[in-house]
User: Fold this.
Amino acid sequence: MADNAFALHEISGQDQVTFPFNIKDYQRYVFGDDRLAHRFGTDCAKAFIAHISGSKAAQPTTTTTASDQTAADDVAVAVLSDYVPTATHSLRNHFVAYLNRHLVSLNANPAIKVDITSVDDAPQEQRACTEAVTGIYRIDRERVGSRSIIVLNEFRLSHVREHQVRTSLRSAKVDNPITFVYLASTLDLSSAKSLSPILGFIISPSIKDVEDIAHTNDFVMNANFVQYILGIEEEEFCRFLRRQDDGFARLLLDYAIGGRYHDDELYKANVSFLRWEVGTRESL
Assistant:
């Protein structure tokens, strides 16, 4: 699998673009609706498998041994990761689940999941640079081995992140083939600019929308949800938290501390109340 990129949908346009998904469905996915993550992840996997199968069919036939074929087909599916899982983690769960059904049907090894993490101690000026970036991201080289790497994400709005990931991994002597897989890709910068207002609306839901998602059976708490909830007005946050059960409050606190939101002035007051609330509940 050579270095390249694949997207389920392509987005084009100048002053306006047509969003490739139902906006409300995508918003629910962003804030933790795993039912929508299943739909998007499965659709993306189906299209990617068809794309790869078509590419292989177009290639000239070569003679390979069974061991060569197995090594060539081994895959690791990566997402950019931190302490608090993102919506993309849920997307990957369903993408990999469908991909693995396909792989085992071909007697190939199932894909593994790996995370690409940010190097926290990289110099600030290095992290801000968009050209010739090295050392910003890292991956478990031993776990990946010789596998081809699929990096999964939602939107391709530019080539900057791809360049950063490739350069970082190459500098760490991870020379595996890398393919970037997206739900949707813009065809030019004007498309990305036109898409920005839509994405801005998606990540700015109402508190009712977010709480409705949290109360479904398919809810998976993620970074977007945590950041949104911890960022609401203090009085509203207190009322919201009192409506949630103990398990929800404990997980929210774990993510608030693990994600270092307690160190951010924007979230500090709400995290402080959350710590008090969880402590009070556990002392009863």
Notes: The beta strands are 4-11, 75-81, 112-118, 137-138, 148-156, 178-186. The CA atoms of residues 242 and 277 lie 9 Å apart. The chain has two domains: 4-202, 207-283.
